[in-house]
Design brief:
The protein is of the alpha+beta class. It has helices spanning about 25-30, 55-70, 90-95, 105-120, 125-220, 340-345, and strands at about 230-235, 250-255, 260-265, 270-275, 280-285, 290-300, 305-310, 315, 325-335, 335-340.
Length: about 350
């Protein structure tokens, strides 16, 4: 520890009460080495300083406040003060190396910075531990922030997935509902069509039954019917020609396609059915008054005996026998003598 220098020899302190004889004594100028290099004075935070600087500052404060005021009236006393170390830079005290603010060519300033932690009372190991503790705290804070960010991101993803799942489920429900509605509509349409078809069939059946009933009633009342349909009259009764053995035509020809139905002109009974030479296949229908109706040149015979009602199908138009084409040769005979079929049918209210 350095001490203050003694008063110069040959000078009586008692006789020199004033400071003008040898100058005002400043213990800090005599005992403290001036710091070299660039230094910053650390500002103490809270409480008393923890380094040896506090002692010097306290002594100076005591001497400066009250001692200097009475130093001229008292004998000079030798005061020993501790050596005041140079204050280190703040980055060096914390173990850092903030050398950008220092001069690169000042080696003495480098020595002061190297010795700074030791003189300020900060052990390098402690500075390292403090730095490690700060870095550890920073790392933990960053980890916590990352964890919170990851948790928030995971929550957002979970929420997005939940929303997507709900949307998909809603779409599936809507699609299923639309499908069920379409199927229901199709079933209803099919049932409606089936009901309409059944109604039409029933109406057609009822109409056919009503028609059949009316025809039966007409036949029972002695109604008469045309012998065939979709025909063309080609040869009339009495036409002359070499085609007929008698020299003239004895009936009325209804030209029609082969297979056209041939009907009974009135209620009666079949007295003959079969092959008849030049007439081909022939059916003879006898009416209640004895009139005979001959159906000649048939391709087939549906009824060959028994009673029939007017309008019943008894055969089919053909081209059998002595013919030049398919047609129905109709003859009307009363008492064995032929009469004009056209006049006979017209007389019974038929439009031939």
């Amino acid at each position: 520890m350095a001490s203050n220098s003694p008063a110069p020899e040959g000078i009586d302190v008692q006789e020199q009460p004033t400071a003008g004889a040898w100058g005002e004594w400043n213990p800090t100028e005599d005992s403290a080495r001036p710091p070299r290099g660039k230094h910053r004075v650390l500002k103490q935070r809270g409480g008393l300083a923890r380094s040896s600087t506090v002692l010097g500052v306290g002594v100076i404060a005591a001497v400066g406040a009250g001692g200097i005021a009475t130093a001229q009236d008292r004998p000079q006393v030798a005061i020993s003060l501790p050596s005041l170390p140079a204050l280190p830079d703040l980055p060096e005290a914390l173990g850092g190396a903030d050398q950008s603010a220092e001069s690169a060519g000042d080696s003495d300033a480098g020595s002061a910075r190297t010795a700074g932690p030791a003189r300020s009372g900060i052990i390098p190991q402690q500075a390292d531990r403090r730095s490690d503790a700060g870095e550890l705290l920073r790392s933990r804070i960053l980890q916590q922030a990352e964890s919170q960010q990851d948790a928030a991101a995971a929550q957002e993803r979970a929420e997005a997935e939940r929303v997507a799942q709900e949307a998909a489920a809603q779409q599936a429900r809507d699609a299923q509902a639309a499908k069920e509605a379409a199927e229901k509509a199709a079933v209803e349409a099919a049932e409606k069509d089936a009901a309409e078809e059944a109604r039409r069939a029933q109406e057609a059946k009822e109409a056919a039954e009503a028609k059949e009933k009316a025809e039966r009633a007409a036949r029972s009342a002695g109604a008469f019917f045309l012998p065939t349909s979709a025909y063309t009259l080609t040869s009339h009764y009495g036409d002359s020609g070499s085609m007929w053995s008698s020299g003239h035509h004895t009936g009325l020809d209804f030209a029609a396609p082969t297979g056209t139905p041939v009907k009974a002109v009135g209620a009666g009974k079949i007295i003959s059915a079969g092959w008849s030479g030049a007439y081909g296949y022939r059916i003879v229908l006898e009416l209640p008054d004895g009139t005979e109706i001959w159906y000649c040149h048939l391709s087939s015979m549906s009824v060959t005996g028994g009673s029939v009602a007017g309008g019943d199908t008894i055969g089919r138009v053909g081209a059998t026998g002595n013919v030049t084409g398919p047609h129905l040769h109709l003859e009307v005979r009363q008492g064995g003598v032929t009469v004009d079929p056209l006049s006979w049918l017209t007389a019974r209210g038929l439009n031939v």
